[in-house]
Amino acid sequence: MGSNALFDSTGQNGGSTYPAHNSHTLTGSVKGSHFSPALTHSFGSLHTERIIAARPFDIVHAEVPFSNCCGSKWRPFLIWRDFGLDWWGFPLTKHDPRNRYEIPVADWQLAGLRRPGSVRMAAACPVAKECVEYVIGTISKRDAAMIVAYFGDFFETGQPEPMEQDMGLTFA
User: Which of 1, 42, 59, 94 is 20 to 30 A from 143 in CA distance terms?
Assistant: First the structure.
């Protein structure tokens, strides 16, 4: 299992005012989270026989694939949607926003994170549910509202963003 200093290594919610994750427990618990022994899967150095019960706006500790599909990294991951066998969402980084596609997590302590970080909106990806180790916490309503608004603005247009430079391409 990898390590990332952004999350609370106890797996606890970090004093959030949100209800405990008991409200969506399947069965049992591991590291302060909830799981179902529904699946056996081996990957990396972790062997698991559980699927973590999580919901949108939860931050989980997950094995997130790199955008080039060559490898992965254990890191915090914000769940956006449930797609059956996968969660779809956004990886988090410990860095301040480096571009307009990264949104700061203002209430990072309430979310169970150990330090400030950013949600990497442009790095959205699916993560297999068996690649989620535990729930770190839930983002605040304030952060959730900011991410929802940004997501809407980000995908508002039905057309691709114009290229920064004309490449002079001609299509037949």
Answer: 1
Give the Cα separation of 6 and 83 in Å (integer): 26
Contacts of 64-69 with C-beta under 8 Å, sequence gap 24+, read 64/91, 64/125, 64/127, 65/125, 65/127, 67/123, 67/125
Name all contacts of 29-36 with Cβ < 8 Å and 24+ positions apart: 30/134, 31/133, 31/134, 32/134, 32/135, 33/133, 33/134, 33/135, 34/135
* pLDDT surpasses 90 at 152: no
- Whole-number Å distance between alpha carbons of 52 and 62: 10
**Element (DSSP H or E) covering residue 146:** helix 141-154
In this prediction, residue 20 has a pLDDT band, given cuts at 50, 70 and 90, of very low
User: Residue 18 domain-assigned?
Assistant: no
Q: Reduced to 3 states, what is the DSSP secondary structure of residue 127? A: strand
Whether 76 is covered by a domain: the verdict is: yes
Residue 26: strand pairing partners: none
Q: Into how many domains does the chain fold? A: 1
146 is a domain residue: yes
